[in-house]
Amino acid sequence: MAETLLLTGATGYIASHTWVALHQAGYNVVGIDNLCNSNRAVVERLARITGATPNFVEGDVRDRALLDKLFAEHKISGAIHFAALKAVGESVSKPIEYYSNNLNGLLTLCAAMQSANVKQLVFSSSATVYGNPHAVPILEDFPLSATNPYGQTKLMGEQILRDLEISDESWRIGYLRYFNPVGAHESGLIGEDPGGIPNNLMPYVAQVAGGRRQKLSVYGGDYPTVDGTGVRDYIHVCDLADGHVAALKYLREQPRGMTVNLGTGRGYSVLEVVKAYERASGRPVPYEIVARRPGDIASCYADPALARELLGWRAQHDIDRMCEDSWRWQSMNPNGFAG
Amino acid sequence: MAETLLLTGATGYIASHTWVALHQAGYNVVGIDNLCNSNRAVVERLARITGATPNFVEGDVRDRALLDKLFAEHKISGAIHFAALKAVGESVSKPIEYYSNNLNGLLTLCAAMQSANVKQLVFSSSATVYGNPHAVPILEDFPLSATNPYGQTKLMGEQILRDLEISDESWRIGYLRYFNPVGAHESGLIGEDPGGIPNNLMPYVAQVAGGRRQKLSVYGGDYPTVDGTGVRDYIHVCDLADGHVAALKYLREQPRGMTVNLGTGRGYSVLEVVKAYERASGRPVPYEIVARRPGDIASCYADPALARELLGWRAQHDIDRMCEDSWRWQSMNPNGFAG
């Protein structure tokens, strides 16, 4: 019989792509989301992609009674905890909201899982826990730090889960440190739908290519990189989704958890992304080099060897494919799910 | 008109003594406690000490609706957040409970205060945030770390509040890092009432002197200290209480918050405490030197100069007075508040 997984923040960008991957891998999924940062239309799109009716529950992961109900109604064997607020700038202006959402969400989920004796958990961590890394590529045993409340919530989340593992060794926890997810499902039916002005590069580039924004501001052209612009490790969201499936398999088969980077191991500069997007879309992406942003670093990319070794997983899609899939999503949904 | 303060965890050990000090300093107090680790009898004792009826509300600081009600009903100008679980060993075995109580408690209080536009807060931090300090005496700018989930909750609590201050500079937050509170109010009516086997030295010594326990186990007799036993900075709980009154005055008068150690600056060894307790009680305190506990350090005491400079506060009571007041409380209440 197929295993059933609980996905929190299930209609978000990474979660929705993971939902598809889990469906394809034969899992049943129960998805919960309070829709504070995502759109109910995702559920209908998931139905079209998977050909099945998604089991979606609108609700907040901090609602303990609701979680207890879900664990009682379904034979859930594990959870992937995506639910979290994730905008760095907003986290600086609204720290209590961020800590409350991200920490209380995690704590409520863990408490409900403990009660239900469900102890397999995949945690959405982030490369942000490396703070300003002293070197690249980044290894999992690099020192951890945070430079803003969003990063703190990920760092604290990892700490809380490590203490949970110490208290009860029957837990199996996977800490997945995402690099920069981009792209979209090849169907063009789901993708990243940032509210307002995109915080991340590729959705912004997509909106410039699509004509929704005039030009891209590139923060810093004098970094010690291939062309002076910042280098990041972009990873196709479907590769990331597959990483979750691989992590769940590992947790089921091994007597321990793991902490791995999910990145490609290859960095691209802002201008390399711009050029790739122009190729993929056939549209110009005008840009302007402006001052560096305080806190930004020159170069950040993963060493993905441990994920390959432990999970047998590696990213498959290159930057051109990331841009092509992003562009298909952007063209088909110029205003995101609301359109 | 007198200011009104909200005290969370109000019937706990330090909070109840602070309640008395605040009353004497002319404040009105609204106290809230879920009584998970304290006794309702404290309220009646406070009435006897202060000659006034304490305004006590049984409830959980994580109950946002209750907090909103309290802020609506009373003209509260600030809060002292005592409510927290504090047993190091228990925090290792029940981390989710500790994180939930201590972090959600703080976050719920801050959110309610923000809504009510009440932005003066004194936070019960602890010397535990210095982890294993590299030197003594300990200064406020020493590096911070934690060695167990309880310590993590204090460290994370400080981080959350610092991010809150950055997001909104109208907050005035006092971070009080307590060393080792001991002793009791001179009336003998309130004092420390640990449930079960005491985790801390002086309550244990008190129960040995009182005949409730046979002998004291002293963990380690070969530390590089005056007599080989561990040295700590014990501070009379009434001095600590006065520190809170001084901190509130500072927050009202200064355009900024502060972080200070509340300790005496003088360390005493376990055996020095034992001897002082024997003098104060006139009873023998049998003890046995046993192996060191992993994680314990030789010596830990505060540099209290900053608190003196900023708050005009310093501890007044010496170790003999601490033991005398502890013994009076112990003799009058051999079984704590339950007796």
Automatic annotation (TrEMBL), chains A, B:
<keyword id="KW-0119">Carbohydrate metabolism</keyword>
<protein>
    <recommendedName>
        <fullName>UDP-glucose 4-epimerase</fullName>
        <ecNumber>5.1.3.2</ecNumber>
    </recommendedName>
</protein>
<keyword id="KW-0520">NAD</keyword>
<dbReference type="GO" id="GO:0003978">
    <property type="term" value="F:UDP-glucose 4-epimerase activity"/>
</dbReference>
<keyword id="KW-0413">Isomerase</keyword>
<dbReference type="Pfam" id="PF01370">
    <property type="entry name" value="Epimerase"/>
</dbReference>
<comment type="similarity">
    <text>Belongs to the NAD(P)-dependent epimerase/dehydratase family.</text>
</comment>
<dbReference type="InterPro" id="IPR001509">
    <property type="entry name" value="Epimerase_deHydtase"/>
</dbReference>
<dbReference type="InterPro" id="IPR036291">
    <property type="entry name" value="NAD(P)-bd_dom_sf"/>
</dbReference>
<comment type="pathway">
    <text>Carbohydrate metabolism; galactose metabolism.</text>
</comment>
<comment type="subunit">
    <text>Homodimer.</text>
</comment>
<dbReference type="InterPro" id="IPR005886">
    <property type="entry name" value="UDP_G4E"/>
</dbReference>
<keyword id="KW-0299">Galactose metabolism</keyword>
<feature type="domain" description="NAD-dependent epimerase/dehydratase">
    <location>
        <begin position="6"/>
        <end position="263"/>
    </location>
</feature>
<dbReference type="GO" id="GO:0006012">
    <property type="term" value="P:galactose metabolic process"/>
</dbReference>
<dbReference type="GO" id="GO:0005829">
    <property type="term" value="C:cytosol"/>
</dbReference>
